Input
Amino acid sequence: MWIPTDNEKYGVVIASFRGTVPHGLPLEVGDTVQILEKCDGWYRGFVLKSPSIKGIFPATYIHLKNANVKNKGQFETIIPTEDTVITEMTGTLREWGIMWKQLYVKNEGDLFHRLWHVMNELLDLRRQVLVGHLTHDRMKDVKRHITARLDWGNEQMGLDLVPRKEFSMVDPDEISVTELYKLMEHRHRKKDTPIPTSTHHLFLQMKSLMCANLGEELEVFFSIYDSRENHPVSERFFVKLNKNGLPKFPERMERQCTLFVDLGSSDLRKDIYIIVHIIRLGRMAAGEKKNTCNAQYRRPFGCAVLSIADLLQTERDTRDSKEDHMLKVYMCNTESEWYQIHENIIKKLNARYNLTSSNAGLSVALQLLHGDIDQIRREYPVLFTRGVAITRKLGFSDIIMPGDIRNDLYVTLERGEFEKGGKSVARNVDVTMYVLDSEGQILKDCISLGSGEIPVSEHHSFVLYHNNSPRWAEPLKLPIPVDKFRGAHIRLEFRHCSTKEKGEKKLFGFSFVPLMQEDGRTLPDGIHELLVHKCEENTSFHDPARYLKLQYCKGNLHGNSQPVKASKETFWISSFLCSTKLTQNGDLLDFLKWRAHPERICDILSKFKDIDGAEIVKFLQDTLDALFGILDENSQKYGLKVFDSLVHIINLLQDIKFQHFKPVMDTYIESHFAGALAYRDLIKVLKRYIDRSIEAERQEHIQDVLRAQEYIFKYIIHSRSLYTLATGGQNEEEFRSNIYELFQSVRYFLSIESQGSSIITQTQAVFLSSFPAVYSELLKLIDVREVANLVRDTLRSMPDVLHVEYSLEAVKLQCIAKTVESQLFTNPDSRCILLPVVLHHLHMHLQEQKDLTMCARILSTTFCLIKKDSSEITASEEVDMLVDSLLGVLLRTILEISNRSQPSGPTIRLQFQDVTGEFVACLLALLRQMTDKHYQQLLESFTSKDDLRDFLLQIFTVFKILIRPEMFPKDWTIMRLVTNNVIITTILYLSDALRKNFLHEGFDFKVWESYFYLAVIFINQPCLQLEMFSPSKRKKVLEKYGDMRVTMGCEIFSMWQNLGEHKLQFIPGLIGPFLEVTLVPQADLRNVMIPIFHDMMDWEQRRTGNFKQVEAKLIDKLDSLMSEGKGDETYRELFNSIIPLFGPYPSLLKKIERETWRESGISLVATVTRLMERLLDYRDCMKVAEVDGKKIGCTVSLLNFYKTEINKEEMYIRYIHKLYDLHLKAQNFTEAAYTLLLYDELLEWSERPLREFLHYPMQTEWQRKEILHLTIIQNFDKGKCWENGIILCRELADQYESFYDYRNLSKMRMMEASFYDKIMDQQRLEPEFFRVGFYGKKFPFFLRNKEFVCRGHDYERLEAFQQRMLNEFPHAIAMQHANQPEETIFQADAQYLQIYAVIPIPDNHEILQKEAIPDHIKSFYRVNNIWRFRYDRPFHKGIKDKENEFKSLWVERTTLTLVQSLPGISRWFEVDRREVVEMSPLENAIEVLENKNQQLRTLITQCQSRQMQNINPLTMCLNGVIDAAVNGGLARYQEAFFVKDYILNHPEDGEKISRLRELMFEQAHILEYGLAVHEKFVPQDMRPLHKKLVDQFFVMKSRLGIQDFPGYARVSPIHLTNGSPRTCRNPTLGAISPDGARLVNRRSPLSYPAFNRYSSSSLSSQASAEVSNITGQSESSDEVFQMQQTLTQQIGDSCMPRSDPNLSAPEKVMNPTPSSWSLDSGKEARNCVPDSAKLVSPPVPPRPPHTGSPAKTYRSFSPQAFETPPANPRSPHKSSVQSLTPSPTDYQSLGPVYNSPVLSGSSSSGISSLSRGSVTETTLTDGTITCTLIGSEELIKRENGTFACMPPRYNLSEHGTGTSRRRAPLPHSLSVPPSAEPPALPPKPHVLRVHRSEGENRMDEILVRPRSQPRKVSQL
Output
């Protein structure tokens, strides 16, 4: 039976459990489980990280741990009782573990490895804590280390800052908000700005000296030197080196390493150096022979210097790692300058010295350490365990500690002056030094050369060679014990060192100096000039008394009674004492020995203030004993002077240098002070000084007394305690009376206001600053309430008026702050007495906005104490006082501070921002401690509704400020949650007041609006978006606070429902804010908010009858929210969460459907939904940094939506410019120009003023349009779209001309001319076009299941384009076929891309058909303004004939019509319509031959007119056609289509068979003429090939059954008049036909002329396989032709109208009935326009004539103009006259032909386009083709007639309806003005201009219609 557990509640899994049993719970090692029930060795419970999954598991797998249970029962929670640091570390490590893996995924390797090391370190520390074997101090260190590492990791991982108290996390509910803020601030400051340490230490390790010529032992001395003051800073560190330059004792680490300790911050500057002096031990001269002398001397060797600045730079670069340095060692050339060698090196006087060798150097390791010495011992324990020498600073450190004991005398051997002594050369002087006691015994080990070596008993100086005035400057330390100091002296013996063989040292003199004088003073600091007493070598010094009587120093020193013979020889030393036991001050000695001279006490006390403070504090206890001894001796006589001396000592301890001696004085008072009667004298003198302060002119001494009042009261209180103890409490009333009198004097003194003088004010300030320190002393003897009353009365005595003397006000507030922080204020009894005074002063200062920092500090402390120490009743009373006094002023203060201008700069947390945070914390603390009663009292306290209204507005505004993201640092989530909890609690109280007072007759819109906006801002805070938190963090927040967004949402709903008819005032203003709330992905919150939207729609409908305002506001807000990045982090999630709001959401739609306004409601929902989809896609695309097709396409989709669907003009223009910027970034200059033209079209040439908008300044409409024109022209120029630029140039030029602005007009004309030059001279590449299909639901909305045609980049082929698209859509799958995808692909949850190349179908046929127009002009019209594209797919229908595959080879032709033409505002546009037709094998053959013939004609024309640089393209084309025909190419067509079976089975193809035969004859004719031209231009080396072609041509003719051409045909088929192919020069041709012209039958609707392009389609191999290796023979072509003629006559009468009296002969061409396979499905007649009425963009756009008005009315061409059915030309095949093949180039060129290797090098005649690629690249046209021989008159008329010119169109507008294709209305900026007749083309040379007929003018009237005026954008 399962039993609920009582104690077994919490455990850790120690073995994995798979959970294979029924209801088993899988467990992993390390999981923590909560146990609910137990049964027979099994537990039931859940893993804490997945509390929703419960199950059973074995009890033996669990290690139980102690835990506390909260809310015992169904919803109980477990809190482990382990150390809170361990709990925090466990949870944090689990959270880091997940994020740590993500670092690896994100490739953040550095942080990944650092975090791994920290996690391992934390696990190790955790084990140490859990084991529990650590000492208390070590446990503190480990916890400090753990929390530091946790904080570091949290900061690195972007986690929250954790507030801690003594290493443990704090519960925000258990402490005051102000205390929480302090903790957070402390952690934040500690993290941001490490506290700079004032103490530093330098670690040095001597490694080696590298020098080539060593061979002798060395002594190396390191010290720190101040080059500014020219004296050493530290003692010396001494290292001995062996002959190899390595440490002599490598096993003794302390002899190689040292720590220069106690360096101040002032010692770390660039003029501080590490200097190294090196002394060698050896012969006198370094190069002497061995046998010269055996004596060893200390001789100078070299010096090295390193600046501390170099070390600091290294520390910054290497971050505290030990760094090796190589120091250059300089040798001294002149030994007399050895004493200053380091100074000269520092001053860069290196020329005086030589380097020891080029590669020599001293190798040392250096590292700077920071912090006090105890901290260094903790952080670098290895240094001290392995041994390190401590090198101290010379003298005391900046701060003297009481425990420091030093007794060091520093002596420096400076210099000497010696006589030659009868020598011819100067002496080599060696100085030997001894320290002797009073009995003449040498003191052992009392001479230290440096810290690295042990002290010695005697010291020998180094020897300077042949120098009678040697200067050593050698410092020594004498660590003499204090008890040995009296009577000790130093003896210096001088010897001459001989350089002869014996090397003996001869004594020639000595000096001495006593260390202490008879009166007890030690040797004074400074330089001492000692006398050198002469002596002999054998002089004995056994009895020092003999020479101690002699004079030792020049000058009048005591003890030198015996005169001495004058000596010229002297010796100088300098001394410096650093001792805590000895003094050199005689006055201090006299003071301490006052009993010896009682008559001199007054004099001694007078001199006391002149004694050095360092000397006094060294002997502090003795000094105080002496003072109180004198007071006891005669208090009446000496009391005042003793009091002054005591004040002097107390103030001495205020100095930062001696402040650490305060504990010494405290100890003295507690343990050694025995003056039981002193309190009377002290009180009396103190009162006397306070009373005198009012009249005294000089206040300095009184101020000194008042500064010392803390310790004076300590002496008073302790003295009284001793008296009470001794007498049993006698004279208590007297003591109290004295105290009250003293405070009465104080109150009077404080109450006096300074009258024009600030002296008394300064004295008052001094008193107030030290007064709070007295409280704790008074509490020792006086009741707490009495003390509180004394303090209250004292503080009240200060004047209330804020003085001009601002400093006093600041001191007052500091006094109050110290009072609040004192022990007195922590007691609730005393606090209730003091609090009114504190609040009174606070209120005054806050009203004046003065001393805000101090006010915040006082308030913060007050709230901490109230939370911590108050009982419920006391706290309630205190909160009452606080609310009454401070709530209003607190709110005003926060508003005032927040409204200050924020200074710019990188500083984030400035002083006033810190103050803001503290005031905010105080306000939150006050609000959190307010109860129902307090809120009720507060609201009742307002006397009028206006006051309540002002209060509500004020507090709502403050709450908005508190919610700002910048209020707290981003990682202060705990503080933000507490803030929000307080805010929502307060709002719940205040909303009742809002309903009661401001709803019905007293409705106040402003208050309600402020309330709603606050609620919206509250809900949208980032810190409340729980979905963004980790699961563990989310769980903690929900457990502690719940989801505060839902609570606030419910409050919004409740308040909205109460509004009634007042709701109308908030529509549409609150639509945006409420919509923002719905973007929060919280289901409950959305359920609450949706009914509000329905309510808004209902009220808006009632008021206005529509939703225009609601819709407009929704749309604006949605756009702004998307741009701000609102909503979910993942855009798709946002989409899924917002659609229910406006889509199939049951409650909203059901309500809408029940309303009378159902249709408009559903429409609104649909519009907003579509906008939402587009905005989400836009945001998704904009995430990518680089510009790609997705970004541009998405922007175009959104732009069109704003224009066409919701007519938001300003948004439309904004997105125009966003699209323009994208194009510029991608260097799509043509598209950028088209885009900007959209805005240009909205403007007119008017003087209307426009406001500032986007980047445009305030200007007139004319000026802005001019700027736009120039920008667009510039982009057209960059995009090489000069034809369009010319039109804009002309329009702008007209404007300049109308205003007589000839300067700008000239520039425009020159720009226009330059564009013509560029058209003729510069190369333009023709882009490829690609069809792209996007299939699958994973694509963005604007792409999903749609197909587009894309304009490729320059040089971009299919493979490159496919790769680019796959890079843009990395998750897409490329489809490998061109078939239409199945429905499953459309609905798939994936991305599929289908890409293949397509061929453009140009509209401007007339230009493309004119032979004389250069090809690079035609190329523009071939690939610009293209609406339609074509794609061919070959396939076999029926049984495939293996012998001749052409019999069954059909072509499926797909024509795609776009919504807009390319190029346009995008590189790709959506396909609007798709038409698929099938071409029969015969039609395919006709088209192939037509294409090949057209290519041949073009090449022959180019060759003949010498447009071709070489003849190779023509040669290759001829060779390909003739060779293929000989090998059976055309024969396959004969076999397939000219056989009887085919003709009988396909009687409807008679005309086509006839056309095919004609094309074959035509090809033969063209080939014959082409061979003739080829013969004329072929170079000599290609003659054999030409001969071969001629031979093969005759074989081809014979196979085709052509014996010879008629005679007339031999005349050149390509005769040009003045180089023009337009007129025929052969007059005989006019009589061939009865109609005067040879008419060719109309071509098949599919047989459009085209230019062939190489296709890189993936289907090319398939087509190649289907068409290759064709063999076989055909029947007689003559017979077949006759059969065809018969069939043509049989079917001709029924389908081919022959005569029409209204038609001229050239127009009598048949118009066949549209067939079922026609591409245009019967629309061809509608699309065909007579030549005279066709609109063709000319090679050079015509300039419209100027009408004189700067603002013209333009009209554009209408698509309906093209629907006029043309006259139907007749067919030529009705005539019985045999068809004659005309000159091949008399057919007008209907399409450009590339000199492509695919065509010119093909293997069969005209079939190559199918054999090499799957796409038959033929250009489709809609016009009727009448390419025949024409009479010369008609031809001249036809050729020279002027055509209406249609410039290139821009592509934003929709197509016209009912036409076969859509044309964009021409923008007015490029339209042709209708007022004059259409401009003519420039006149052709030698051709008469023919005027148009009336019919043609009428046609123009049909074609041109007025253009509607563009929409105006107001002021934009």
Q: What stands out?
A: The radius of gyration is 54 Å.
